[in-house]
Amino acid sequence: MSATYQCAYCGEGNEALVDPSGGDEQTYTEDCAVCCRPNVLHISISSEGSVTLTAELEG
Length: 59
Ligand SMILES: [Zn+2]
Known about the structure:
It is a single chain. The strands form two sheets. The protein has a three-stranded antiparallel sheet with strand order 3-4-5, with no helix packed on it. Strands 1-2 form a two-stranded antiparallel ribbon. The chain is mostly beta strands. The chain has one domain (2-57). It has strands spanning 2-6, 13-17, 25-31, 38-45, 51-57. Zinc ion binds at residues 7, 9-10, 12, 32, 34-35, 37.
């Protein structure tokens, strides 16, 4: 499944792929497609299967 987040640096929308088999709570780093800076993504998957994705600055 995929979810969208707003880059913590430039504010542009990005799409991230989420693997539900990785667990209900996941954190990983992905580079913004627009400014190429690393965003730390916090992913939460509810019991209904909806994904909440927030991005923050790395470090
Ligand atoms: Zn960006």
